[in-house]
Description:
The protein is mainly β. Helices cover about 5% and strands about 20% of the residues. It has four helices and 17 strands.
Amino acid sequence: MHWSSLTALALVAPSTALIRFGCSQLTVQRVDPLVNPGISPFPHLHQIIGGNAFNISMDPREDIGEKATCTTCQFSEDFSNYWTAVLFFRARNGSYHRVLQVPNIGFEGSNGGMTVYYMQDGLANYQQTSKVTAFKQGFRMLIGEASYRSKQQATRFPESMNFPTKPCPAGIMANVRFPTCWDGKNLDAPDHMSHMAYPESGTFESGGPCPASHPVRVPQLMYETIWDTSKFNDKELWPEDGSQPFVWSMGDHTGFGSHGDYIFGWKGDSLQRAMDSACYVKCPTLKTQSVSAMNKCKYNEVLVDEPIDGWLDSIPGNPMEGMKMK
């Protein structure tokens, strides 16, 4: 993404909305209340941002926009929870180290976390004129599949799908984009995916129409996570055979298993108001908070007491067990 272009064109008054905001880290835990509610520990580690109503179960009957008392997100009316897998570096000697996140441009000072987008049209469309319906209380979804290990399984256009094979001076940015067509009835589905769909023809970016089975156009939700891999750019740490050293927390060294989870938690009608307003990156109709306030919001309960930082013999949950080390 060309942030300088985005900033310049933000000065042109849009018809409607694209919002971009930072969220600091809430917690890093081996739980997944969407896929396995009430179960701890979950097989792999996640990094989570958003409201402090996050918990091991996330009962869909509860309005987390009312239950939460703080959020790590810049827009203080957003108590949603957003999460992804965690990136690890695998050193030449077989040990692992968690890769920390760094804030994106415009959110300097925040404690890791991610950048979140809600868009009415493709990111490069600076007018953002399409009408969208905001998600509802109780809505949740998942994109990607942790078990994917091949290019044929994974779809991640226009980003590269696999890990880089050489050190990256500024780290690795990983994006997650969600579907944009809702069936208009179900707030969730057994697989957390089938209540959502992609356009019937074309793409979201090209303005493709939603299929009749999923006729309601919703905002495209996108996560940007910047992993600070620069700490591991010493080639003496990399595998001797030249293979790339990064692995997702579920044991995926291909990159194809990248996935994201979302549980809606905006307060009242705040998201719909934003989508109906002249909001472009910044949004005067929404309440905002300082970076220091974002960083103060925490989820302090330790659901799984295990080391996740420093050099480790294995990734938490040991998903690499039985895999041949390179």
